[in-house]
UniProtKB/TrEMBL annotation:
NCBIfam families: moaC, PRK09364.1. One of its GO terms (molecular function) is cyclic pyranopterin monophosphate synthase activity. Substrate binds at L75, C76, H77, M113, E114. Its EC number is 4.6.1.17. This is Cyclic pyranopterin monophosphate synthase. It is an enzyme of class 4 (lyase). It comes from Azospirillum thermophilum. Keywords: Lyase, Molybdenum cofactor biosynthesis. Catalyzes the conversion of (8S)-3',8-cyclo-7,8-dihydroguanosine 5'-triphosphate to cyclic pyranopterin monophosphate (cPMP). Homohexamer; trimer of dimers. InterPro entries: MoaC, MoaC_bact/euk, MoaC_sf, MoCo_biosynth_MoaA/MoaC, Mopterin_CF_biosynth-C_dom. The gene is moaC. Belongs to the MoaC family. Residues 15-150 form the Molybdopterin cofactor biosynthesis C (MoaC) domain.
Length: 159
């Protein structure tokens, strides 16, 4: 089979061969949110969560998650990320913690999965740290919002 596919000529799952692709600067940004009770968000903002500083721990977890993406998602290439940025902001109007992750590298394949994994792991960490007081939290809206680089060029908006 020619082209980029996760299946070989016999129909078996394989990692895509990117050896013929040109190395380019690649970036991807993903977003998501954790919705919660107002009291839970107040605990986060006041530093009252018994497990510690939720936003700092979730930021670190997101960065670590991005770096471990090939261990979590079958057939993802192990990548030498040059930058992972995870931002968490609290929105009292929506009772939400909003998460944005941007991953960068110079390579032959994109970093969309790494950005999505960073957001997902950060959101799961917020949930884990706060579940004792709010098991009804919802992780929502995890999506790619921007990518640049590679043959397909730029997609989405990072605003």
């Amino acid at each position: 089979m020619s082209g980029f596919t996760h299946f070989d000529a016999e129909g078996r799952a394989v990692m895509v061969d990117v050896s013929d692709k040109t190395e380019t600067e690649r970036t991807a940004t993903a977003r998501g949110s954790v919705l919660m009770q107002p009291e839970t968000l107040k605990l986060i903002l006041d530093g009252g969560v018994k497990k510690g500083d939720v936003l700092s721990v979730a930021r670190l977890a997101g960065i670590m998650g991005a770096k471990r993406t090939p261990d979590l998602i079958p057939l993802c290439h192990p990548l030498a990320l040059t930058s992972v940025k995870v931002d968490l902001t609290c929105d009292p109007g929506r009772n939400a913690v909003d998460i944005t992750a941007t991953c960068k590298l110079k390579g032959r394949t994109g970093v969309e999965m790494e950005a999505l994994t960073a957001v997902s792991v950060a959101a799961l960490t917020v949930y884990d740290m706060c579940k004792a007081v709010d098991r009804g939290m919802t992780i929502t809206g995890v999506q790619l919002v921007h990518k640049a680089g590679g043959k397909s060029g730029e997609w989405g908006t990072a605003s």
